[in-house]
């Protein structure tokens, strides 16, 4: 973020680290082409404008007031930076501690939560994201179109993401083709619950 420009953060693990659930080629293209393009296009969109110098969070928070290129590419940059962190090799399993308690008391059980989140991911028509957010101190499942997210002032349901899944076809098509349901089912095996718990505690 030096000189008012954004840059692609390194992936926190190798491209093949999420195999067999997310394949190496998808991860490599997703990070080096798709995410990089959001970064490049965001920089282009703010260069020489009054938006240059604002933080990514500031740009996203004022999504209704910025050009579409800033909303879409700023969202793309934020969402993917977040997405890489809430996944990890040898992830999955069940959340524990306070987060597990909150999920159980909010949704009744982990299985109920998983179903609500999966339904949200599968129900998003076209491209977008499904989220677990902290909204006024409560856990809420939500989804957003395109590269929007719940931090945006334009979001229908606002809050702070603690878990999210990219359901754009570029996130799964090479391995799963049109079978978004198989991608989502397999994706649970790479969830980084330590990071989700950390975000929960930070934002509760
Ligand atoms: Mn993506």
What are the defining features of this structure?
single chain, 204 residues, mainly alpha, 3-stranded antiparallel sheet, 11% strand, globular, binds manganese (II) ion
Structure description:
The protein has 204 residues and is mostly helical. 47% of the residues lie in helices and 11% in strands. The protein has 8 helices and 3 strands. The chain has helices at residues 24-46, 56-61, 68-85, 97-107, 110-123, 173-176, 180-187, 193-203; strands spanning 128-135, 138-145, 160-166. A 3-stranded antiparallel beta sheet has the order 2-1-3, with helices on both faces. Strand 1 and strand 2 (138-145) form a beta hairpin. The chain is globular. The mean pLDDT is 97. Bound molecules: manganese (II) ion. The site of manganese (II) ion (MN) has 7 residues, from helix 1.
Low-confidence stretches: none
Shape: globular
Oligomeric state of the chains present here: single chain
| Structural class determined from secondary elements | mainly alpha
Quick rundown:
With 204 residues, the protein is mainly alpha-helical. The protein contains 8 helices and 3 strands; from the N terminus they run H-H-H-H-H-E-E-E-H-H-H.
Question: How does the SSE layout of this entry go?
Answer:
Layout: H1 24-46, H2 56-61, H3 68-85, H4 97-107, H5 110-123, E1 128-135, E2 138-145, E3 160-166, H6 173-176, H7 180-187, H8 193-203
Antiparallel strand pairs: 1-2, 1-3
The structure holds manganese (II) ion.
């Amino acid at each position: 973020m030096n000189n008012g420009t954004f840059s692609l953060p390194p992936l926190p693990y190798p491209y093949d680290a999420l195999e067999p659930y997310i394949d190496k080629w998808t991860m490599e293209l997703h990070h080096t082409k798709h995410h990089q393009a959001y970064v490049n296009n965001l920089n282009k969109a703010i260069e020489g404008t009054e938006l240059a110098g604002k933080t990514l969070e500031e740009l996203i928070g004022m999504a209704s007031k910025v050009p579409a290129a800033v909303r879409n590419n700023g969202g793309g940059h934020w969402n993917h930076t977040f997405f890489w962190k809430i996944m990890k090799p040898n992830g999955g399993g069940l959340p524990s501690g306070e987060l597990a308690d909150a999920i159980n008391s909010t949704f009744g059980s982990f299985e109920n939560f998983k179903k609500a989140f999966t339904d949200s991911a599968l129900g998003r028509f076209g491209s977008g994201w499904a989220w677990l957010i902290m909204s006024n101190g409560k856990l809420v499942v939500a989804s957003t179109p395109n590269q929007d997210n719940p931090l945006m002032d334009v979001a229908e349901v606002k809050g702070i993401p603690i878990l999210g899944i990219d359901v754009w076809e570029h996130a799964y098509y090479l391995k799963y083709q049109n079978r978004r349901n198989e991608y989502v089912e397999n994706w649970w095996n790479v969830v980084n619950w330590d990071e989700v718990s950390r975000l929960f505690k930070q934002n509760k």
